[in-house]
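Hi team, as promised in this morning's meeting, here are the two structures we talked about. I've kept the exact order from the run log so nobody has to guess. The first one is mostly here for context; it's the second one we should focus on when we meet again. Sequence first, then the predicted structure tokens.
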Amino acid sequence: MSRVAPVLVCCLYGIASASPRTDPTSGRSVFTGATMPAATSIDLDPAAIGPGQFDYAYIAATGVYDHYGVRLDNVDLATGAITAGDPLHDNEISPGGMLAYVWHIGTDQRATLGFELRSAPGETFIANRTGLGYHTLGGGQRNYEVGVGTSLRIIDSLYVGVSLNSETSYLHLHYARDTALENGNGANGLQSDCGGAPCGIGNAQASEDYEVNVRTPILSTSNLVANLGILVTLGKDVFLGIAYHAPPGLETVTEFDGTVDVRRSPRDGGNLVHGAATVFLSQPASAVAELRARLPSALDLHVGGRWEDLSRIQAYDVRTYGSTFSSANIPEWQLRARGLHDAFSLWAGVEQVELDRSHDWLRFGGRIGVETSSLRDQETSPLTISPRSYTADVGVQLRLGPLLLQGTYGVQYFPTVNVANSSFDPRARVGCIASGYDYSTAACEGVRDGYGIASADGQYDRVEHAVRIALILQRL
């Protein structure tokens, strides 16, 4: 079998936005998974790239489209009465891409190498909705990766694999800060003047705007991500793949460095202040397993699951620095709470099997699944909407000689969440300040964890669409 060296030319594009959740276009998606000899397995389960007879180049364009609907309720500080606010809607698009080459080494094919450039669709936050601004005005997180993976056949029924990626992450946070609420009932607080009337909560005259743009180093050992996997043959056409994905650099906390622009509130002059910023974030590990078994009528059954250590992501720890920040009463430390917990996903489906390359020119597949919530209802906010959800994915593959064209589409439906007694409670900050910041109180505990800001009581809706279009050129 002849070999060719890959020549790779790629443009990966995107907005400054990496998701705490695994790429929805890979894993549960049709024609991908921890047992599939596909380029997507370089990350998912590097052992799975081993089986196969052909070297191939792989290029894919991916994208995620999120539709959000949020209605926040208003809380009266004096009476505790709640009134429904206006519903707000937002659509966010996050593109991605992947370029890879898989090379089976030698005539016995005991070793396989895979090379990739990849940027999965990033996590994007609701943008440009001033009514949600104390939680989010936009931004997101995105990863750019370059990596190499290898699969070794130990015995005929066992492959082991490892891949190592250098991953650079970009994080953009855009939000508002209520300078009146930050001071409680004290000086410059809720009773202070905002255009001739007491400021109260959420007054635009007291709203301070933050634009944080930070990233991890481009070249650093703290950026290295290891993926470990095995692929076991349990019987004729029955395979089990298991993989573990470590956090970047095996670090407990990842440091992002960059800049912050602060637009002071109108009552404070509205001037723009520049400074430096550092954000500390604990990024998650994950594990995935998949069983693939042959069914009658040339079908493969796929049953898979995933665990994600999202409980590491409790908040964005934002530190800001500037020579004029102290005199402008800009805080050096803020927590942007998320409050995630571990999440589990399960999916199952069938795919047609290509038995004859010259005749099986068209293949179809489909999968359905369920994902547990990644946070309690009380921690839901416009920044993080992730209750229990349901997924459905379909795919089609067209063969044109050595060229394969794949298209997959998936939808993830998040049932409506109605939040009362939200952990985000402005009364907690007022009470904490009144107690003299007594952190033994429940109010101050919420403030310390980043929840003492605008209320997040209300109703939340979300639907996510995911698309992957891939071209595969096999070397015959």
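And here is the second protein, the one for discussion:
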Amino acid sequence: MSRSKPRRDRRRNLRLLADPAQAPAATFTVVVQSLEEEKPLPKTKPRRQSWARRVSLGALRAGIVGGGLAVVAGTLLTVFTPTRFLDSQPAAAAPQKKGVKPQELWGLTQKLFPGAKLSSSESVAAPNSTAPAPQEMTALKQKIAALRPKAPSKITPYAYFWEVDSQQYVNLAGNQALPAASTIKIPLAVAFFQAVDAGKIQLQEQLPLTQAVVAGGAGEMQYQIGKVKSFSALETVTQMIVISDNTATNMILTRLGGKAEVNRRFQSWGLNHTTVNNFLPDLEGTNKTSPQDLVNLLRKIHQGELLSLKSRDRLLGIMRETKTRTLLPQGLEPGAVISHKTGDIGTILGDAGIIDMPNGRRYIGAVFATRPYNDPAARTLIQNISRTTYQHFKGTTPAPKPVVAEKPKAKPSP
């Protein structure tokens, strides 16, 4: 397209100014005057964009801005993952932490970036949401209660069970503080392996065998005084559980720092009825616990709390080797596995453990029975409670085992 005449004249004049030798002086003067008198060219109006073009450009700009905000929001959620602020410990046990709550952080993120979403692996509980309360298994509780001896029997059962999958429980006076007998060795073993995890105790270190820790009743270490100077820590804790060695228990208690130290630790675990007041064998029953305390402790172990996985597996492996199998194990069928510890001081006996069924179900239970000294009916009652519970989870109803008269023991076997 050819240029307009004013534009051609302007370009020619500019060439003459750039090189005056190409034109006579008079022509040069005329060119200068014409340039000075020349008015600026009128401004051309920009072309008006169509409606469709404006809409397309607006959508493109919005998409770019939205994409940038989404990237920023994703980065914030990656760096400030809300679930990192959640505490696995109960609120009563964990100190209150200052700072931004996960719900507040997520609310702020939604205000700044309305399109932000959590990934499938993240979740934030609503500010006022609460976990559903565990439900008691009333049907099983009624079955267990029906097993209690009729008057004038002086045998009284105390039981607590927890079903792992359903998170349901049975409480038959299970929160009653009772003489612990040798079941006190369960929390002592947990305290021992917790000290191992902390590096305060080495499994192969030698624990001295002295007259101060020698105890009668169950166990073989009492007969090694004067023959053997020490035992490894691992062998000592193993003998404490497997054959309920009282001397080994006193050695472990001494190594852990004594009664005050282990009681402080029990309290920190939420065991409100569990205390050590004397060395074993404690035939007077001054050491205390409750079925609920023992189940809650074993539940923490099952859930991976208190101990490392290695120490948890080692402890449960030792408890599976417990020699006395006259209580809870008698209610189980072949194929079931139990990690447990018994206790017996004549006037009370009990058993607590974790039971794995062949069908894959797992439950935790503790049963005690107070009785006239060495009354065998108490042992039969615990066996029947164990059998009833096992069959309830299996889906069948067993016939109670009849009580067989036995000659009382001459002395208790702690």
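Starting points for discussion:
Residues 327 and 383 are 5 Å apart (CA to CA).
The domain at 138-394 is CATH 3.40.710.10 (Beta-lactamase).
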